[in-house]
């Protein structure tokens, strides 16, 4: 199973190499051009990317979005690195894109690597207990979220959307549950990454 790691942190690379089984062939790359070349050559099953690597080139975010679309059978892990808040969860923002952090539990990562949609999953059954559905917001939740992330308070959102404050609070609760964090900074970070990579979170 081919795996590519794009992360400037030597300890992260070593940790992943030690964690991944010997049956995986691991390739380290230093920049996005090498990642593109590696994907074209190896057609990897898994790619780990530190979000810091997305800012090294002006169009790297757009290029990564295209890469994700081009390789639908590759599972992309995006490690959040620009927030110091502890986050052990994971969020599927597309069928083949997971946003998480380096605080993710080893057992959770192991199960995700055996995601049933991964062609070379070593033990697909072990992922059955995980929620692998991409995050999806209602249109009302999405509209409220944009205002919330812009700094509007509950009363201000209520007035502008002409809905009850209780409804605004309910939408916030739903979003926190779906993104698996009560912390606004984590939510903001996930939303920002989704906007950069995939034109935002799905809304129906």
List the main descriptive attributes of the protein structure presented here:
204 residues, alpha/beta, 6-stranded mixed β-sheet, two-stranded parallel sheet, 8 strands, elongated
Could you walk me through the main structural features you see in this protein, from its secondary elements to its overall organization?
The protein contains 8 helices and 8 strands; from the N terminus they run βαβαβαβββαβααααβ. Helix 5 (139-149) packs across helix 7 and helix 6 packs across helix 7. The protein is elongated, with a radius of gyration of 18 Å. The protein has 204 residues and is an alpha/beta fold. The mean pLDDT is 85. The strands form 2 sheets. The chain has a 6-stranded mixed sheet, with helices on one face. Helix 1 (10-19) links the parallel strand 1 (2-6) and strand 2. 44% of the residues lie in helices and 17% in strands.
Could you write a compact summary of the structure shown?
The chain has 204 residues and is an alpha/beta fold.
Characterize the largest beta sheet: strand count, sense, and whether it forms a barrel: 6 strands, mixed
**Order of strands across the main sheet:** 2-1-3-4-6-5
Task: Report the uncertain regions.
Answer: none
The radius of gyration computed from the alpha-carbon positions, rounded to a whole number of angstroms, is 18 Å
Q: Write the element-wise H/E pattern from the N-terminal end onward.
A: EHEHEHEEEHEHHHHE
Principal-axis shape = elongated
Q: Report the average pLDDT across residues.
A: 85
Note the total helix count: 8
Fraction in helix = 40-55%
Structural class: alpha/beta
- Beta content: 15-25%
Please tally the β strands and state the result.
8
Oligomer: single chain
**Separation of the first and last Cα atoms:** 35 Å
